[in-house]
## 1
Amino acid sequence: MERLVNKTAIITGAARGIGRAIAEAFVKEGADVAVADLAPEDAVGELLGTLRSGGRRVLYVRTDVSQEADVKAMVERVVGELGRVDILVNDAGIFSQVFLHEMTAEQWDKVISVNLRSVFLCTRYVLPQMLERGSGKIINVGSQLGQIGGPEMVHYSASKGGVIAFTKALAREVSAKGVHVNAIAPGPILTDMMAEETDEWKDKKLSELPIGRFGQAFEVAPTAVFLASDDSSYYVGQTLGPNGGDVML
C-alpha cells in the first residue's frame, strides 16, 4: 500500500467505470487525484466524498477532453491547485455499435475525437512539465478491440488501436527523458459502456472468453497502480491486458 504517496494524478473519464476504479485505487495508494470528466458536478458528489474519505486531496474539473481549450484550462487548474502532475491516466472514452456501411461521418468523428484526440490533447498539455522535471507516468487506456477488432465497432477499434500506437511512439520519444508511457487494453468489463452492447454481442463474447465471465472494473485498477508506481520502472511502451484471455500475446 501507499505506493503513490506524494504523487498527483489526473484521471480522465473517472466519474464511473474503470476510471473511477483507478481513482479509488490511487487514493488508497496515497495519491492526490484530479478527476476530469464531463459529468455534471452534482452527479459526482458521492464519488468525491468516497475519494476524499481517505484524507487525500481530490479535485473535480468538469472537462470535455475532446476540446483543446477545456483540456488546457483543466491542466492549468490542476497544476495551480495541486502543484504538479506526476501521473496522467487517459481513460475517457465513448462507444457506439454500428456497421461501417451505415456509419455516419459524425459517428466516426465523435468516437475518434473522445477516444483518441483526447489522449493527444491531455498528453500534450501535461507532458511539458514532466519533461522539465525529468519524470512522469502516462497510462493510456485502450481496449482489446484495438488489438483484434470487432464487427460493428470499426470506429471504436480504430480509436483504441490508435491509442496503442500512440503509446508506443511516444514511449520511444520520451522514455530516455524520464517519462514512462504505457497502455492498458482491458477485455470486456462490466461497466455502463458494456450495457450499451447488444445481448447477441454479449452472448457471443462470453462464449469466446477462456475465463468464462466478464471482468469487473476493480480488476483493471491494479494494473494502473503498477504502471503508475516505481515497480514498473522497466516497462516502456507496453500494453498490458487484463482481458480474461480474450487476447493472448
## 2
Amino acid sequence: MKQHPVTAARLTEPELDQIRTLIENRSAILFDSSRERFFSTRVREYLEEKGLASGSELMGVVRGSSIEYEALLERLLTQETSFFRYPAVYEALETKILPEVQERKFWETPRTLRIWSAGCSTGEEPYSIAITVSEALKFAEAWEIEVLATDISRRALRHAERGAYPKRSLQDVSLGQVENYFTATKHGFQVKPRIRRMISFVQMNLVESVYVGKIDCIFCMNVLMYFSEERRLAILRRFYDALEPGGYFLLGHAETLTNAPVKFEPVVLGDCRIYRKPGVVEARRAPALVEGAL
C-alpha cells in the first residue's frame, strides 16, 4: 500500500457521505448528524493511520477488502464500557428482576435463566451480569444459566472471550468480587472459568432477524442510537417478542423508549427506570410502576 505524508491526507464532505452510506448499507449502522464531529474525526484518524491520501482512496480500500472494512468499523464504534457501569441497573437486576424470575420459575424443570447482553463490546457487561447472578440467585447451581453476549465486532468479542483485563478496569469491582471471580495474572486479572462458562459470545448484527429463544432479561445499553428510527423500532419489536412474559428490558441511563411500537411497562426503582413486558394473564395496568408506592 502506497504511503503518503500525513499532511497530504484530504477528506471532503462528499467523501464522508460516501463512507457513511457504505457503512449504513453494509451494517445498517447510521452515523447521523448528532455524531458528525465524532465520525469525521475518527475517519480522518484512520485515513492518516493507514497513510492514505484521500477519502476516495479509503473507499477503494474498504470496498475491496472485508478485513479493511471491519477495521474501519472497529475504529468508528466507540466500545466504551466498564464493569458494573450504571450501578443502579445491577441493583435492579439483583433486587427486582432476579427475585421475580426465581419466584416465577421455582417449580419449573429445568429451571432456566437466560439474559441477553446485546452489544456486549469487550465483555465487561456480560461478566458483570454473570457475577450479579452468581451472588443474587439462590441455589444458582440448581439453575441452567446462560448469558448470551452478542456484538458486531469480532475484535471486541475475541477480547471478551479471553476475559483478561488490566487492574484499572476493575476499579468498580469490590475487593470481595475480585477475590471470588478473578484470578491475578502477570498483566492484570482474568475472569475465573466458572463465570466464563456461563456466557455464550456470538457475533451478531441486531438488525438481522436471528432466533435467540426466549429471554428473561435483555440489556441493550447505548446501542440503539447507532440505528435509524425505522431499524430501531424493528429491533425493539424483536426484543419484545424474545422476552418471556414478565421479562425485563434495560436501556442506558440517558435512553428512553420514545415512539416504541410495543407496550412495555416502565418500572421506576429510585434513579433507575427499567421496562417490563406484561405477563400473560395481567390486565391493564397503570402507565408506570414505582417501587414502594401503594
